[in-house]
Design a protein that fits this description.
heterodimer, A: alpha+beta, 5-stranded mixed beta sheet, 5-stranded antiparallel beta sheet, B: mainly alpha, Serine Threonine Protein Phosphatase 5, Tetratricopeptide repeat, 23 helices
Chain lengths: 732, 439
């Protein structure tokens, strides 16, 4: 028996000594930890890589329904068990104080190993609150799988403004987070289980040993000179002045780094023929937004980091900024395209859109050009989008200022920085403005290039939307959403096949369109139209508006895994009720004042002025609307958006629960939207048909119909508001 | 560094190697120490990580430093023995190859010895045999080339050749730990447990006195004593040796498994499970995993038992996917649990074609029996017993094969032998043996 045992053991060796595909035996569990020290927080990247035979029992344990694969639910349940265990064994102390971990992200994958047997890879990001002062000692120990053989790697890194010294750990890794083990090198598996180091704000103390790389070179921290300003030894008035100047310059330089929508600004102004005043306003908006954003995020970091992790806000802010830009771009695109296509006719202002008269000062012909579309609202949105995302080093300054008790100094530095940022953006905007003017003048002088001039604003609007999309994409990627992965083959979705799910989506979408509250709203608008084409367009626009929030909210929910609370949905339904009341009231109001030319007094840019104004009722050319280009009216779109928002609260969780693949979910929502567009177009035509037929002959009948639509909408809205407001609204 | 220095280091490292013994020769040490008289030894860890890193750094800077490669290889092999993790075997093989590349084997017997050792651990026994014979040409006056040859021949089943090689080793390194352990191994194979026990005891004492002493060597010898006593059915002594080995080398996986096996044999299934759970957590080697599964099964924890068995099969899948020839463990696991018996038979047959040791013959006999190839089972069983080895499991296999072929008297004889020698040789199979005898 004893000898048999020996041979058994040898048998085991032979077992594994064949190809050695996994560089570390198939039983190993390998660990990678990267610790990044910031002034107020510690971030940890923790990766556990289980080789084939170590992964096997884990996969078995996680595979609750024993179907041989890990569904998202099973993965989440498994991570819910193991990640807290990992955290418990990752002991980091700062000056003897144990750091508590919060999970930023966690991800599990099963990369195929030898003979296509799965290995397991768990990647986590944790964050903990610390306060690095003049000298903070850290000690870290990874006690996970302590007895298991495997590669153990620890990396320590300083964030900007922080210096790490006297470290037993190195500043760089060897394996690219356990993705590539060195195979050509004769190197026993790293066995780094613990590390100690010290950290300070500012520069390396005297007689301290700098953090080293594995090749024995000191880790040169990416110097953040702006962040260094705050931690200067003494603050003389001269230094403060100089520092402000530097901050301004750094802000300007920062504006030149990627992001911040410089091109967007340029593209907007060039298309809209802005003026210096616009550019200045833009700069001011950027400055204010950026400063407040830095302060807000800094405060969140300081006081709410137990509840909200600023990390998760970054991509969200970025996403919001991108969405803002996309919104501006699409809106401009639609406006300019419409204007360009129907530009030669009479143009009249709708009471819903702001307009500027900045072209009055110029003598160039503008009859064939679109009306000016620079609006203060657009400018504001653009400025906000440019300043919304705080510069990380500004955030470091803010936090360091608080740590060093130099809050006032920190604030002025940030304002100076933001001013620098805004100035450069504004300058770029101005450059675009003048370059654009020059270009146009030249082109016009040469003549014959009218189409280019006409196309330019439209193209610039498209560019804006595209750039906004790029910003959103980047934000999602940053948030850890693998957009490319969405395009890989979707998983089969439970009992329903993908095709049947999508078909179901189309039918439900059609049906959804003819729900009472939708019809009530759309009817009020449709009854104002006389042509079938225009009616169906109202329906189509509503459908598009309705689809957009569903898809957007759906994507956010699917990708960021946010839960929608019940009261949010109810609140939105409540808003829909209010909207119905408003629409009904408006319809009735309009009816009472129809066919009147009236003076419309309004105000913008501080000037009050009045001009004669037609509401859309009396058409300039009677029935010429169809070949005149559709009157710009975004009302149906906005109403659709409102409905979509309210509907998404109910629909999206269903989609997420029923459909496993994000891609199929997205398609489902798109097809659902398509169904609702088609359904509503149909309904609009049906509603519009009698109006169309009777308009010229039976005015009374027409008026009665419109009145009925208005009353219906008003009444329905009141009922909704009453019900939700009094009955179902739970306290948030 | 002078050549004798290198050799001295090598010999030290090699003596600590897996023991496979030569013997039959009764020229043993005069002092017959009793097991209980072997003191418990505590030693510091052998290869410090610092030493390994230093040497790695050394060869990185000077890729021609074959002495550093050879030393490094010795450390890697030590780690392999300590942990059972094949990462170290891969490193050791590469270090040996690098050494021989830097300095041809004619001038580099240390590198060649390292290569033999790596080949042996990688189960390339024929290559290990050929290279150790080449090493004898270079270093014929030293003992260690014969030690390596002995080990290779034992695994290949050439017992007479192994004994001849061992005599050469004994001539050169009389009663060294290496010579004693090989002698003990041969005594065990030839059915002389009393001699083996004395030799292992001597070896354990000798290992503790080596300068510098290696805790892995001491623990290994101690573990061998534990195995010996377990096989003789003396579970109390076995437990003591395993526990002593664990004092010398805490969490030594072989001793943990041995302790688990012994506790289970003494009826403490829960205690056995605790030990096996520990060892599987350190090194989930199929033999340990299967044993843990058996204990779960005995205590009615079917679900956990099946999870362990699935793990063993997964290991087998991986091994087969890589085209490994030696799947003896998996074959026996299948046969013991009556699953995939035909596959088990083919695995054992393939291995026996390449390597004809008695335990290979036993695996073939047992799997052939389960797969209903009775004639082949009979022939192979005869081969497995031909050395007269006193091993309960061999007899148990022989008994069931004899019964299947209608030889009731031989079956009863072997069953009685089995249960008399080692009544709890296996948690599941021992019960079957008792049932068979009762019929």
């Amino acid at each position: 028996m004893r000898t048999r045992f020996i041979i058994f053991f040898f048998g085991f060796l032979a077992f594994l000594s064949g190809a050695l595909a996994h560089p570390l035996g198939q039983y190993t569990i390998n660990h990678f930890t990267r610790i990044e020290i910031e002034s107020e927080r510690v971030k940890v990247r923790y990766v556990v890589d289980l080789a084939e035979l170590a992964a096997f029992p884990e996969i078995q344990a996680a595979d609750l329904n024993h179907d041989g694969t890990l569904s998202e639910v099973e993965t989440a349940a498994y991570l819910k068990i193991v990640v807290p265990q990992f955290q418990a064994a990752l002991q980091l102390t700062a000056d003897g104080q144990r750091v508590e971990w919060q999970t930023l992200s966690q991800h599990l994958s099963l990369p195929p190993g030898t003979a296509n047997l799965p290995t397991m890879r768990i990647e986590c990001d944790f964050v903990g609150v610390v306060s690095v002062n003049a000298k903070t000692y850290f000690r870290f120990e990874d006690g996970n799988h302590a007895q298991r053989q495997g590669w153990r790697e620890i990396v320590v890194r300083p964030a900007s403004g922080v210096t790490i010294y006297n470290s037993t750990a190195f500043g760089n890794g060897l394996t690219d987070e356990l993705k590539a083990y060195p195979e050509d090198l004769l190197l026993a598996p790293l066995n780094e289980r613990a590390a100690t180091w010290a950290a300070t704000i500012g520069t390396l103390p005297a007689e301290a040993t700098a953090l080293m790389t594995r090749t024995g070179k000191p880790v040169v921290p990416q110097r953040d000179r702006f962040a260094d300003l705050i931690s200067a030894q003494s603050l003389t008035p001269g230094f403060v002045l100089l520092a402000l100047l530097f901050a301004f310059v750094f802000g300007g330089a920062h504006a030149l780094s990627p992001g911040h929508g410089k091109t967007v600004v340029g593209a907007y102004l060039i298309g809209a023929r802005g003026t210096a005043r616009h550019a200045a306003f833009l700069g001011l908006t950027v400055t204010i937004t950026h400063t407040s954003s830095v302060i807000a995020l800094g405060l969140v970091t300081l006081f709410a980091s137990h509840y909200i992790v600023p990390e998760t806000l970054f991509p969200l802010l970025s996403l919001a900024s991108g969405a803002l830009v996309v919104g501006i771009g699409l809106r401009l695109f639609a406006q300019r395209l419409r204007a360009a296509l129907g530009g030669s006719g009479t143009h009249h202002h709708s009471d819903q859109s702001d307009h500027s008269h900045s072209h009055h000062g110029h003598d160039h012909p503008h009859t064939h050009l679109p009306p000016e579309q620079i609006t203060w609202r657009n400018l504001l949105a653009l400025g906000v989008s440019g300043g919304l995302l705080p510069c990380p080093s500004a955030l470091v300054v803010m936090l360091s200022a608080i740590a060093l008790n130099r809050i006032a100094f920190g604030l002025v530095l940030i304002v100076a920085f933001s001013l620098g940022l805004a100035s450069v953006l504004t300058l770029i905007g101005l450059a675009f403005v003048y370059a654009g003017r020059l270009l146009k003048t030249n082109l016009q002088e040469k003549g014959g290039l009218a189409c280019v001039i006409r196309a330019l604003p439209i193209m610039s609007a498209a560019v804006i939307a595209g750039l906004g999309g790029a910003i959103m994409w980047q934000a999602l990627t940053q948030a850890g959403v693998n957009l490319r992965a969405l395009w890989t083959a979707p998983e089969p979705t439970g009992s329903l096949s993908t095709i049947s799910v999508l078909t179901l989506g189309l039918i439900l979408g059609l049906k959804h369109a003819i729900e009472a509250d939708h019809l009530a709203a759309v009817t009020t608008i449709v009854t104002e139209r006389k042509s079938i084409w225009s009616s169906s367009l109202v329906g189509g626009l509503w459908g598009i508006g309705h689809t957009i929030p569903i898809v957007v909210v759906g994507l956010i929910v699917i990708l960021l895994r946010i839960e929608i609370k019940d009261y949010v949905g109810l609140s939105l339904e409540f808003c829909v009720g209010l909207m119905l009341i408003a629409l009904g009231a408006q319809a009735l109001w309009k009816l009472s004042r129809s066919r009147e030319l009236h003076l419309h007094v309004h105000k913008h840019g501080g000037q009050v002025h009045a001009h004669p104004h037609f509401h859309d009722e009396p058409e300039a050319g009677g029935q010429s609307q169809t070949h005149h280009g559709f009157k710009p009216n975004l009302r149906p779109l906005l109403v659709g958006v409102m409905h979509g928002l309210a509907g998404s609260a109910a629909l999206v969780p269903l989609v997420v629960a029923e459909i496993r693949s994000p891609l199929v979910g997205l398609f489902y929502m798109l097809i659902f939207g398509l169904g609702s567009i088609g359904g509503m177009m149909l309904m609009s035509v049906l509603v519009g048909l009698p109006l169309h037929l009777t308009a010229s002959r039976f005015t009374r009948f027409n008026v009665a119909l419109r009145a009925a639509a208005g009353v219906f909408s008003l009444g329905f809205g009141l009922v909704m508001v009453y019900q939700i407001g009094l009955g179902q609204m739970p306290s948030p | 560094m002078c050549k004798s220095g290198i050799t001295a280091i090598l010999v030290l490292l090699l003596t600590a190697a897996f023991g496979l013994t030569l013997a039959c020769d009764n020229v043993g040490p005069a002092t017959a120490a009793k097991a209980s008289s072997v003191p418990v030894v505590t030693l510091a860890p052998d290869a410090s990580e610092g030493a390994i890193r230093f040497l790695e750094d050394r060869v990185k800077k000077d890729p021609d430093d074959f002495i550093a490669y050879n030393k490094l290889q010795g450390y890697y092999l030590l780690r392999l023995r300590e942990t059972g993790n094949v990462t170290w075997l891969d490193l050791a093989t590469r270090a040996a190859q690098a050494s021989l590349k830097a300095m041809p084997l004619e001038q580099n017997p240390g590198g060649l010895a390292g290569l033999v050792q790596a080949e042996f651990d990688a189960h390339e026994f024929a290559a290990a045999r050929d290279h150790s014979q080449q090493l004898i040409q270079l270093e014929g006056n030293k003992g260690y080339p014969y030690q390596l040859l002995t080990d290779a021949l034992l695994e290949l089943g050439d017992y007479d050749g192994a004994e001849k090689a061992w005599r050469e080793l004994q001539k050169r390194d009389r009663n060294s730990v290496a010579a004693l352990t090989r002698q003990a191994r041969l005594a065990t194979l030839r059915g002389q447990p009393e001699i083996a026990e004395r030799l292992y005891t001597e070896a354990t004492l000798g290992a503790a006195k080596l300068v510098p002493a290696s805790r892995e060597t001491v623990a290994w010898c101690r573990w061998q004593l534990g195995e010996h006593h377990f096989n003789q059915g003396d579970y109390e002594a076995a437990e003591k040796h395993y526990r002593d080995a664990l004092i010398t080398y805490p969490d030594y996986y072989r001793a943990l498994a041995g302790l688990g096996k012994t506790l289970a044999a003494r009826g403490d299934l829960a205690g056995g499970m605790v030990q096996y759970e520990r060892v599987v957590n350190i090194l989930p080697e199929p033999a340990f995993v299967a044993a843990l599964g058996d204990l779960y099964k005995l205590t009615g924890r079917e679900k956990e038992a099946n999870a362990q068995y699935a793990m063993v099969e997964q290991s087998g899948k991986l091994s087969q996917a890589k085209g490994n020839l030696y799947n003896r463990q998996l074959a026996l696991f299948y046969a013991d649990h009556d699953v995939k018996v035909e596959e088990a038979y083919l695995l054992a047959k393939k291995e026996y074609d390449a390597r004809r040791d008695i335990y290979g013959a036993d695996a073939l006999a047992w799997t052939a029996f389960k797969a209903n190839h009775l004639e082949e089972a009979q022939t192979a069983m005869k081969e497995a017993l031909h050395l007269g080895t006193r091993d309960a499991r061999l007899w148990y296999h022989a008994a069931l094969i004899a019964r299947a072929t209608g030889d009731q008297s031989a079956a009863v004889k072997h069953l009685k032998q089995t249960l008399q020698l080692n009544p709890q040789f296996d948690p599941l199979q021992a019960a079957i043996a008792r049932k068979a005898l009762a019929q």
